[in-house]
Write a structure and sequence with these properties.
1 helix, 5 strands
Length: 67
Amino acid sequence: MDIRLLDILVCPLCKGPLRHDRTARLLSCRADRLSFPIRDGIPVMLESEALPWRDDTDAPATEAPHA
C-alpha cells in the first residue's frame, strides 16, 4: 500500500487517524475499535466491512466475525 495514501486516509466514521498493520492487512481506528481490511492493496473503508476489535485487548480482530 502506498505510504502517501496512508497519510491522507482517516476513519470514515470519526475522521480520526488510522494505524496500519501490514501483516494482518488492516487499517485500525483506536477510537471506534474497528479495523478496515486492505484487499489487493486497496483499503475497504466501508462500515459494513469493518471488523470489531476483541473486547479484552487493545488490538484489532484478525478475522471476520462468524454469523
